[in-house]
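Section handout 9: paired folding examples.
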Amino acid sequence: MAIGIVACNSNEPEYIQPISLKVTGVELVTAENIGLLKGEVSSSINELTFVATGDDARLGFLSSLTIGDQHYDFNPSDYKMENRTVISKEWGTVQFIRENPYTTKIILSENNSKNARELKLEFGVGYKQTAVTILQRSK
């Protein structure tokens, strides 16, 4: 049995390269670093669409989603069945629309609570990823 180990040289900087996304339903701005985007939406129903674009579009699948204490992880194979709802909760739904290019739709239900909702998304994996934080305002 052979085992291989690959490591980065500790003298080499490790950079995360962002996945390019075409986004509708929310305006995103770059936050603290190049791979982190933030946006804010109203308390009413919101439909957000994320389409992976550019050279690394093949890695632009939704890899994780966190809202409150709920966390979900996904793989590229989850997109094989197109137009599929993968999450349906009181806060909204997540749909995988297509695999090529990776297209993800999130429909946030109306937020009638006194607290804002924070949705954290990660697209891609490893050194090729983009983190997105969406804040849905409270009523």
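Moving on to protein 2 of 2.
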Amino acid sequence: MIILKFRIKKDTIQSMLNILFISLLLMLNSCAFIYSGSKDREIQTQLHQILAEKSSDFAKCAKSSEIFEHFKSQRVTTTLFLDINPQGQLDKFKLDDKEYPDSFVNCVFDIVELLEFPRFDEQEVIELEQPFAFTEN
């Protein structure tokens, strides 16, 4: 029998678990809500996947902007509000009403601004509400 031993720093494991937790939270809870009469499940799934793929980048924004120190908490939740037009372009970006550091807001916006959202046939704007939870190491 061969036994392999690995040494991994505790903070590395915690960071990996945080990213995994956020990804699972996004994928399993189906937290995205779409308003304005659009019931197209395919578009909702695509939007949810696009944001879920960026959850680790959003977590990096949280860490680099020191929101845990800012809010004096080891866990911070935020809700991202987006309006997507039929051309798949971002019409509106907003975070919930907490007083986030500008560095966090700018970092999240810089990521969202570069995302490619799907086009859709309807002439409505999709209003997307997506919660995120970030945990300090």
